[in-house]
Design a protein that fits this description.
By secondary structure, the protein is mostly beta strands. Helices cover 0% and strands 58% of the residues.
Length: 78
């Protein structure tokens, strides 16, 4: 399984959004999924966005996992 997510400025100066993949086995308790992801790489797309790609670790397939993306909005001060 390959996951892609990105970071972008929403076209507004001083606004940034960060996307984080979270995992759960029960849909109630969520944690950062970084330990389930391997081979993460980022590419600057040159238009204010960044593409991040990662692969699901083979050990993550031993149990049923649910994933969600948490979006955090950051207002940058000039």
């Amino acid at each position: 399984m390959k996951n892609e997510f990105g970071r972008n400025t929403w076209g507004r100066k001083g606004v940034d959004i960060t996307l984080q993949i979270e995992a759960s086995t029960d849909l109630f308790n969520w944690s950062n999924a970084s330990d389930l992801l391997i081979g993460q790489s980022s590419t600057d797309l040159g238009d204010g966005t960044e593409l991040t790609e990662s692969t699901l670790s083979p050990t993550a397939t031993d149990t049923r996992n649910f994933f969600r993306i948490r979006a955090t909005l950051h207002l940058l001060q000039n």
